[in-house]
Write a structure and sequence with these properties.
- By secondary structure, the chain is α+β, with helices and mostly antiparallel strands.
- Helices cover 44% and strands 19% of the residues.
- The chain has nine helices and eleven strands.
- A six-stranded antiparallel beta sheet has the order 1-2-11-10-7-8. A five-stranded antiparallel beta sheet has the order 3-4-5-6-9, covered by helices on one side.
- A hairpin with a 4-residue loop joins strand 5 and strand 6.
- Helix 5 runs antiparallel to helix 6.
């Protein structure tokens, strides 16, 4: 309401002063500020109305001071009409642009619900929590991805980061997630599952890739297999930051000895796929994350120290861990704005086999 009142108050003030001012003082040009101010927050109709009121005020000034046909006031009125028309047109363009952004947000929300499905908070003997932080306010999802699948013997999870941004990255993330959900129940081991993911990414990259610029599309990923009947987890890393194991106030990176290249790049570095086992006992929490977390910088340019901040977590389940890290990460980033999308998944083992 105060915003709408401001242009009219400005018109009233300028008109009053201009009528009372000496003959050599002309404040009419200041009336152009009223429709220009209105265009910054209101639509074209309100902007045009304020412009019309400003023109009427200029007519009143002309009649009060000299005559309506006075050359000086005539040019001021013509200039005010033109300026009001221009800013009304710009207000119309802004309204159209805002409508397009609203539509894009709706599409982004729909894409998130279809591509990045929420994870269940209980999966067998595991308690799970996840979060996705978008770098752009208009984008609900980008190239970061995660998913989980319950199998006959346990739970399989993936977290990854597609190279690039925008709708193309969303499409590439959908390819990886679709392949994971299709193969997680079929492949007996992680190397077979990741080989299936690599085939899907390679096939999609071959169709979309510029032949003169090979290797442009790839996805880093960490794939986990957590058996229900064993106090271990298996990790296969494809160029992704290592998961963090939180146990008794300590944070241990689960760095595999033989990481594979990112998905989509194995034809250039054929090292095969090898999973590595790590102890995962009741009460342990594993934190998966994308590089948007560890590459977030503060005002001084320092990276976010995820292991140190995770170690400060007092311990109250995966949901509390992610709430703690999200608040701390946004406080670390200038203005609470991230430079890249960030995703995190926390998994806690609750009981024995």
């Amino acid at each position: 309401m105060a915003q709408v009142a401001a242009p009219f108050a400005l018109i009233a003030l300028v008109t009053t002063i201009d009528v009372l001012a000496p003959p050599e003082v002309h404040l009419g040009p200041f009336l152009a500020a009223a429709p220009a101010l209105t265009a910054s927050f209101a639509g074209p109709r309100m902007t045009a109305f304020v412009g019309a009121v400003a023109v009427l005020a200029q007519v009143v000034v002309a009649v009060a001071r000299t005559t309506l046909t006075d050359l000086n006031h005539t040019f001021q009125i013509i200039a005010l009409i033109l300026i009001s028309a221009f800013v009304t047109f710009f207000a119309h363009l802004r309204e159209v642009h805002e409508g397009q952004l609203t539509q894009l947000r709706s599409v982004a929300v729909a894409a998130q619900q279809v591509v990045l499905r929420p994870l269940r908070d209980r999966m067998g003997p595991l308690r799970v929590a996840s979060v996705y932080l978008a770098a752009e306010a208009e984008a609900q999802i980008g190239g970061d991805l995660y998913a989980a699948a319950r199998t006959e013997h346990g739970t399989r999870l993936i977290i990854g980061d597609v190279r690039g941004k925008g709708l193309e990255a969303v499409g590439d993330a959908a390819i990886v997630l679709g392949a994971f959900r299709a193969a997680a129940h079929q492949e007996k081991d992680l190397p077979g599952l990741v080989a299936h993911l690599e085939s899907a990414v390679a096939a999609d990259t071959a169709e979309a890739e510029d032949p003169e610029r090979p290797g442009e599309g790839f996805t880093t990923a960490a794939v986990l297999d957590i058996p229900d009947g064993e106090m271990t987890l298996r990790v296969l890393s494809c160029g992704h930051p290592p998961p963090l194991l939180l146990r008794g106030g300590r944070v241990v990176p689960l760095q595999v000895d033989h990481p594979a290249p990112p998905l989509g790049l194995t034809e250039f570095v054929d090292t095969g796929f090898a999973a590595q086992s790590f102890p995962f006992e009741p009460g342990d929490v594993v934190l998966l994350y994308t590089d948007g977390v560890i590459e977030a910088r503060d005002a001084a340019g320092s990276f976010y120290p995820l292991p140190d901040r995770a170690a400060d977590w007092p311990g109250d389940g995966p949901d509390a861990l992610l709430r703690h890290l999200c608040a701390d990460l946004l406080a670390h980033s200038p203005g609470g704005l991230l430079g890249d999308d960030a995703a995190m998944v926390a998994i806690e083992r609750l009981g024995g086999p």
